[in-house]
Structure formats: structure tokens, C-alpha cells
Design goal:
The complex is a heterodimer.
Chain A lengths: L8 H12 L4 E5 L8 E7 L2 E7 L5 E5 L13 E3 L3 E2 L6 E2 L5 E3 L18 E7 L2 E5 L7 H4 L3 H5 L7 E11 L3 H13 L10 E4 L5 E4 L1 H4 L18 E6 L3 E6 L3 E10 L2 E11 L6 H19 L9 H19 L4
Antiparallel strand pairs in A: 1-10, 2-3, 2-5, 3-4, 4-9, 6-7, 7-8, 9-10, 11-17, 12-13, 13-14, 14-15, 15-16, 16-17
Chain B lengths: L7 H7 L11 H4 L1 H12 L4 E5 L9 E6 L2 E7 L5 E5 L10 E3 L5 E3 L6 E2 L5 E8 L2 E5 L7 H12 L7 E11 L3 H8 L23 E4 L5 E5 L26 E6 L3 E6 L6 E7 L2 E11 L8 H30 L14 H15 L2
Antiparallel strand pairs in B: 1-9, 2-3, 3-4, 4-8, 5-6, 6-7, 8-9, 10-16, 11-12, 12-13, 13-14, 14-15, 15-16
The chains are: A alpha+beta, B alpha+beta.
């Protein structure tokens, strides 16, 4: 793709409006917010949002932007009974509704009960929390490819979060996505050189290792039933989620833009819920974390073991990206 | 982005306080609006760029940028002050200073060197030791401009004071958010409850609203120091005032004059882009204080306390700026403690709406 697509602030603004403000976005695991009052604050292409579990245990998402002047009412993660804006003290419940605002009694027709932080749509699938800024967005079920099925992990096996970490990069977010796709398709595995690639909506991809593909089973069908050591499946869900399944763990990569030329990668490592969690396991996840860090920090992948497949896959994704980002208004 | 100055969303800020809303985000986030402000405010109004004692001796000079317009203030051999617009008169390019003993400037495009007296001189005026410049060809009479501030703040006799500490800090926000923040008594008891808001009582304020956004506020926060006590003697000319004496006069477009019992510490706020600004805080003390042992250290501690309170604001105000470019931001209603912010905003709107 031409260089300006990775540098231009105006392209970044278009991506924000047409991709990130429209699509379902994977923002957290349910295990990160187990209790009422738990919350996470994050930025989606500069848009500050909060995901919180309310008193009755339901998950909610809303803009992290005080209804008075727009200040962020929370940062990081934690547990609260209510949110209080640090600027002027306006307070909100865990659903984002205004509950208190001092020195506002004089304000004519100020309906405090109707004042709230702008909500986002939220859905949970396979213990992942997805949000959409688009109030007219169709359900995740209808619009997004089913990553879990593509990874061969839908079904009985429950996973838990073994590790989560963050890496920051001085590059456009799309370079990270491409690098993750390329590293998957160029994996130095004999079976991956004969990987089966399927395309999904909005430029999504599903890749299954040759061993599984040659069994004749459709991508994902019961693949977790008898995982073998070289089982590998990969899925890309636009705009920014890449996921990888190995025989005994999953890795989810979410690439967040923070500026036209800066990005933040969240990496989640998941293991079956009943997997060992002792020191040996912790050590193993630390090694895995180091490997991921090394792989992503390395220069752009070299070698072209799967160049035709890679080019075709990236071309498919780019067509959708360009059509959506640059469609005439 | 829009530069419409009669937008309904702007008009909502001009309603009476009990019905008013804050300004829409584009006023703080649009490069177009910033260009409009440069033309209608910064190229027309009297601007306070520093203290006389910063250019005290013949040959002293001070470079300054007003938006993207460079100027230099010089003390000439005969002791007079001269401010010049340091751009090439032929092509408008910012001039570079030639590094030699004589003050000369060279145009990077045509290579022609200029002496200061060959550059366009800016109107210059001095009030109580403060140097003001004006880019306009026919500026407002300075005495008319300064009359209200002189009436309300003149008794603090800054002409009998000298600069003891100067703090320069860059902020990730539009300049108006910083100006409004300094007029905002609503946040004192919340964000600054451990610092400058600790003694402040919202019900004990005395407010005088003046023309075109200027105002004077009398309140009771007391000395702006870590222990909330004065570390210099009371300024002799206000010795009859209590220790908690606090005053803030806003001198539009971008200067907040703050006075306490033992010092005066004005802030000027300068746009450096549509979403960044530079804040300068000057601490002035009566000349006799400069004889005090450890004066410099003590004066620095006053500046350091301003830095501490500014750090409380820094992230907050950057998050405000971020929201200003969000399509999901909707300006909220104003509080009864935002009389001054409302007044400042309306003075600003009056300026950008002028022909």
C-alpha cells in the first residue's frame, strides 16, 4: 500500500470515522471484570471509553467523557461504586447515568435524570467483550465472522486469561496487523506452507494449517477435539483483531491506533480453564511473552515461503479496507 | 470543521448563565478557527509579552512568537524599547538572527540582511513594568485598553516590584482551555482540594464583571505556597489586607493577573498550535524583598508551587482537549460557579464576531 496510508493524519481521521466508529471492536475479556464495580478505561483511536460491570452484574460500555466539559472521569482499571469526574466532581453510576452535579440547581430545565455518558453497544461472545460506537450496528452474530469457529475453539473448552501484556510501537496500526498476518502465513512450519486460506466479511481471513486442512473437515469443525502439536489456526477480524490457536493455547492480538504513526498492541494469552497454573506454567507463559515480543520487535518478515498466499490474503483485506475507508460520501 | 461564528452551538454559550452551555469542540480543535483567532484577536489586540527588567540594559533583547509571528523586543542605546516584527518585508519569511555583536537579521530565502530599524516596528506600551505590543496598524489607544485593569489591579503597584521567578510550561490543549481553567473557581474545591482550593470558600467571592470579558475576582485562598502561608512580608501598599487576600483580574485576551498578600503572579497563555499552548507564570516581589537572604531560593519555591498545581491540571486539561475533537462530545450546561468562565467565553465570542 502507498506510504501515505501509514502516515497521513487525514487517512487516520477517515479510519477512525469509517472503521473504528462503525465496527465491532474486541476490548476486553470477561475475566478482566469479574465483579460488580470493576471497570477498564481505554482509548479507541483517541475516543476514550469505559467498560464496566454494573451492580446487577451486567456489562456496560460508554464514553469516558464527562457530560459537563468532556474530561475523562476514570483512568486505567479498578473497582468503584460510582465514577466521579476529577475536574468538577460530576458523578455517574456504573451504567453511565449522572447521579450528582454540585452547583447546578440554578440551571433551568436541566434534567439531571436524562443526562448520561453516551453509551456504546456491547456484546459478549466466547467470554470476549466487543463494543460498537455505531448505535445502528447490526448484532455481532450477523456482521462479524466467527473467530472462535475459525480458530477451532468454539464448543466445550473454556479458556481463561493466563497473561495479558501491552507493547507500543512507533508505527501505524495497519503495519502491525499486516505483520501479524504475514508472520502467520510465513511461519517456518512445513504444514503452513500448504495452509488453507478462507476469506471472511469486511476483509477478514481464516487460515488453517495443512494437517487439519487435509483431513477434509471444514475450517474449525471440531478441530479442538483432537489437537495435535502442529495444529495452528489463525483468524483476522477487521479492523484490528488477529488471533492464533495452537494445540494448547490461544493468542489474541488487538492493534490499537494511538496516532497516525503510533500504535499500541494488546496481547492476550489464553489457556484451557483446567490447565496447570503452577510456577512451571507461569515460566512457560513468560517464555511465550518473550517470544511474541521478539517476533514483533523484529524487522518486517523476510522470505517468501507463502508469498502468493500472503499477497492474495493481504490483497483481499486491502480491497475491503480501501473500499470502506475511501468510499465517496 | 467550521468557522461559522453564528452557529447555534456558539449562541448557546451566549445565553444567560442559567441556560448557557459550554462551547462546541471545534472552537478548541479546528485549525480554521485558530486562523480566525489569529486574525481577529492576536493581530489586533494589545499583548503583554514580558517585563521591562527582562530587557533592562541597552542591547538586551527578548524573542517572542505570537502564534506563528515572530517578534523581538530590544532595549536601544538611548534606553528606549523597540519591538520589531522579525519577518522579511519582501516575502514574509521569518528572519534568522545573524550571530554577531550587532543585531542583524537575514532572510533565509533572499539572503538579505536587515537592521532592526529596517523592520516593521510594532506599537509598544508599558504599564507598571509590563511591556505590551500590538501588531495592528492602527491599534486601540493603550490607555483605553488598560484603564479597567489599572483601576482594579493598579493598587498592587507592580511598578514597585521586580521579576523574581519565571516559569514556562507547554500544555497539550488549546490556549482557551488554559485561559478558562484559570477563571474556573468551580474546579478549585475538586481538582485542587489539596492545593490552591484548600482554603477557598465559593460563597465568599466578590466578582466584578467588566467589558469584553475582563473581570476582577476577590477571594480568600491565601498565599499560593505549600503551607498556605506568606514567606515574604506583606507588600507595604496592601499591609492593611488580611493574609488570605487573593485577587484575580483577567486582562483579555490571554493574561490572568493574580495577586496575593506578598506577591503578584500573572500568567500569560500563548497559542502554539490549534491544540497546544504555552503558559508563562511570572512571580513579582517588591524590590526590597530582593535583599532578603535566600531570596532566589524562596522565590523559586513560589514558582515550584505553581508547577505542582499545574501538574494537577495537566492531564485533566489534555483529556478535555482530546474530547474537543470527538464526534461524541456534547457541550454541557454551565454551573452557577462558572460566572467567570461564561463571561470570559462571551468576551471571546465578541472578539471573533467583530467585523
Amino acid at each position: 500500500m502507498p506510504g501515505y496510508l501509514y502516515r497521513s493524519p487525514s487517512v487516520y481521521a477517515l479510519e477512525r470515522d469509517r472503521l473504528f466508529m462503525k465496527d465491532w471492536l474486541c476490548v476486553a475479556r470477561v475475566d478482566e471484570l469479574p465483579n460488580p464495580g470493576d471497570y477498564l478505561a481505554l482509548h479507541v483511536a483517541r475516543e476514550p471509553i469505559i467498560v464496566a460491570r454494573n451492580r446487577s452484574g451486567a456489562l456496560r460500555a460508554f464514553s469516558n467523557m464527562c457530560a459537563h466539559r468532556g474530561a475523562e472521569i476514570a483512568t486505567g482499571a479498578g473497582n468503584v461504586t460510582r465514577f466521579s469526574c476529577p475536574y468538577h466532581g460530576w458523578s455517574y453510576d456504573l451504567d453511565g447515568r449522572l447521579t450528582g452535579a454540585a452547583y447546578m440547581n440554578h440551571a433551568a430545565d436541566f434534567a439531571k435524570d436524562e443526562c448520561r455518558l453516551p453509551p456504546l453497544k456491547l456484546e459478549v461472545r466466547d467470554d470476549w467483550i466487543y463494543v460498537s460506537f455505531d448505535e445502528n450496528a447490526e448484532s455481532l452474530e450477523r456482521t462479524a465472522p466467527d473467530i472462535s469457529r475459525d480458530l477451532g475453539v468454539s464448543g466445550a473448552t473454556r479458556y481463561r486469561l493466563a497473561d495479558k501484556f501491552e507493547l507500543t510501537f512507533d508505527c501505524n496500526w495497519k503495519l502491525l496487523v499486516e505483520k501479524l498476518i504475514a508472520s502467520m502465513l510465513q511461519a517456518p512450519s512445513r504444514s503452513m506452507s500448504r495452509a488453507r486460506i478462507a476469506v471472511r466479511g469486511h476483509g477478514g481471513l481464516s487460515v488453517l494449517s495443512a494437517k487439519e486442512a487435509t483431513t477434509g473437515a471444514p475450517a474449525g469443525d471440531d478441530a479442538q477435539a483432537s489437537p495435535t502439536d502442529d495444529f495452528t489456526a489463525f483468524a483476522f477480524m477487521p479492523p484490528n483483531l488477529c488471533a492464533l490457536a495452537r494445540a494448547d493455547h490461544l493468542q489474541y492480538f488487538v492493534c490499537w491506533p494511538t496516532a497516525a504513526e503510533r500504535s499500541r498492541l494488546l496481547v492476550y494469552l489464553l489457556v484451557p480453564a483446567d490447565a496447570d497454573s503452577g510456577p512451571a506454567a507461569a515460566e512457560r507463559w513468560q517464555r511465550q511473552r518473550d517470544r511474541v515480543r521478539e517476533r514483533l520487535a523484529a524487522d518486517a518478515p523476510t522470505g517468501h515461503r507463502a508469498s502468493v498466499a500472503l499477497d492474495a490474503a493481504l490483497w483481499h483485506s486491502f480491497q475491503h479496507y480501501a473500499a470502506r475507508t475511501f468510499a465517496p460520501t | 470543521m467550521t468557522t461559522h461564528t453564528t452557529d447555534d452551538r456558539l449562541n448557546a454559550a451566549s445565553l444567560p448563565l442559567d441556560r448557557a452551555r459550554h462551547l462546541p469542540g471545534y472552537v478548541y480543535a479546528s485549525p480554521d478557527f485558530y486562523a480566525l483567532e489569529k486574525e481577529k484577536i492576536f493581530m489586533r489586540e494589545w499583548l503583554c509579552i514580558g517585563r521591562e527588567e527582562e530587557v533592562e540594559r541597552p542591547g538586551d533583547r527578548l524573542s517572542f512568537d505570537v502564534t506563528d509571528e515572530p517578534l523581538m523586543l530590544l532595549r536601544e542605546a538611548d534606553g528606549r524599547l523597540r519591538a520589531v516584527h522579525t519577518v522579511c518585508r519582501q516575502c514574509g519569511t521569518a528572519l534568522a538572527r545573524v550571530a554577531d555583536a550587532a543585531v542583524r537579521f537575514v532572510c533565509p530565502r533572499d539572503g538579505i540582511a536587515h537592521r532592526p530599524d529596517e523592520l516593521r516596528a510594532l506599537a509598544t506600551a508599558v504599564w507598571q513594568g509590563w511591556v505590551f505590543v500590538n501588531f495592528a496598524a492602527a491599534p486601540q489607544a493603550f490607555d483605553d485598553f488598560i484603564a479597567t485593569a489599572d483601576r482594579d489591579f493598579g493598587f498592587l503597584r507592580q511598578g514597585n516590584c521586580r521579576l523574581g521567578d519565571k516559569l514556562v510550561s507547554d500544555l497539550d490543549c488549546n490556549w482557551k482551555l488554559a485561559v478558562e481553567n484559570l477563571a474556573d473557581i468551580y474546579h478549585l474545591k475538586v481538582l485542587h482540594y489539596k492545593s490552591n482550593g484548600r482554603r477557598f470558600t465559593p460563597d465568599a467571592v466578590k466578582i466584578e464583571l467588566n467589558e469584553r470579558g475582563s473581570y476582577t475576582l476577590l477571594y480568600d485562598s491565601g498565599p499560593s505556597t505549600p503551607d498556605n502561608r506568606a514567606h515574604f512580608p506583606k507588600m507595604p501598599w496592601i499591609a492593611d489586607r488580611p493574609e488570605e487576600f487573593s485577587i484575580n483580574t483577567f486582562l483579555p485576551p490571554n493574561v490572568h493577573l493574580f495577586g496575593r498578600i506578598d506577591n503578584v503572579h500573572p500568567f500569560s497563555i500563548w497559542p502554539t498550535s490549534h491544540e497546544t499552548c504555552r503558559m508563562i507564570c511570572y512571580h513579582l516581589f517588591p524590590t526590597q524583598c530582593f535583599e532578603q537572604p535566600n531570596f532566589a531560593e524562596q522565590a523559586r519555591s513560589y514558582g515550584a508551587w505553581v508547577e505542582t498545581t499545574l501538574e494537577e491540571d495537566r492531564q485533566m486539561i489534555a483529556s478535555l482537549q482530546n474530547s474537543m475533537s470527538s464526534p461524541r462530545f456534547s457541550p454541557g450546561r454551565m454551573s452557577s460557579l462558572e460566572t467567570l468562565v461564561h463571561h470570559v467565553i462571551n468576551g471571546y465570542l465578541e472578539r471573533i464576531r467583530q467585523p
